Structures are given as structure tokens and as C-alpha cells.
Amino acid sequence: MAALPFSKIRRAGGLVFLAGEVPTSPDGSVPSGIAAQTALTLTKIAATLAGEGLSLADVVSCTVYLTHKADFAAFNEAYAKHFSDPLPVRTTVEAALMLDARIEITVIAKEK
Questions:
Q1: Helix (H, G, I), strand (E, B) or coil at 57
Q2: Average per-residue pLDDT in the chain?
Q3: Closest to 88 measured CA to CA, from 8, 26, 16, 6
Q4: DSSP state of 18
Q5: Is-contact 49 109, C-beta < 8 A?
Q6: Per DSSP, what are the bridge partners of residue 89?
């Protein structure tokens, strides 16, 4: 895929903004099921944050896009395994995505 016209990560005012992350493996494949897609997406976000000296514990806000509202309960179960108190604030909406995946997540983290 050609480079898209946006930054993957930006820092501003003590915050770190990550562009939406999707559950694509290095080979471009997408795992089946919302639990696997949620886990992969959050693992990729954690890796991006680690590259900036941060972790999921530094996330203060998440916006989650699900393609099927029926996935909400299973998504919440998978999501909860990756965060602890204090939990980030979160907005979750049902939306069509630009690729064949069931989830996209964008986060804002606080700098240390």
C-alpha cells in the first residue's frame, strides 16, 4: 500500500497522539474474530508506544471503531486484558472501515 497522507504519531502539549491502528499482520493478513483482532491491534499500539518510551499504562484516551455492534461484548472482554486501573477514557462507535477488518483503535497517551 502506498504511503498515506498522515503521521503515525505526533507529540503536542505533553500528549502523544497515535493514528488509528488496525489488526494487520506483517504479511498483511487480518486474523479472524474480534478477540484476535483486538489483541493484535492493542499489541501493535503497545509496540508503537514502547518505541516512544511509553506503554499502554500511559494511554489516557481510546477511540474504537467496530464494524459490527454485535462484537461489542467480545471486544470488551479482549480489551480489558490489556488495560488496568486507572482505565483510559473511551469512545466506541460502529463504523465502516477502509479495509477488511472489524476494528480500528486510535489512542492518546501522556508523556512521562
A1: helix
A2: 96
A3: 16
A4: E
A5: yes
A6: 61
Amino acid found at 1: M
Beta-strand ranges (E) seen in 45-112 are 59-66, 89-94, 103-110
CB half-sphere exposure, 48, CA atoms < 13 A: 23
Nearest-angstrom CA–CA distance, 4 and 79: 27
pLDDT digits (tens, 9 = 90+) for 2-35: 678 999 999 999 999 999 999 999 999 999 999 9
CA atoms of 82 and 75, how far apart (whole Å): 11
* Of the candidates 5, 13, 32, 7, the residue with the CA atom closest to the CA atom of residue 106: 7
Q: What is the pTM of this model?
A: 0.95
Please state which architecture CATH assigns to domain 9-110. 2-Layer Sandwich (3.30)
Q: Half-sphere exposure (CA, 13 Å, Cβ side) for 41? A: 30
Give the separation between CA 17 and CA 7, rounded to whole angstroms. 9
- What whole-number distance in Å separates Cα of residue 62 and Cα of residue 104? 10
In whole angstroms, what is the distance from residue 41 CA to residue 47 CA? 10
Q: Alpha-carbon distance 58 to 107, whole Å?
A: 10
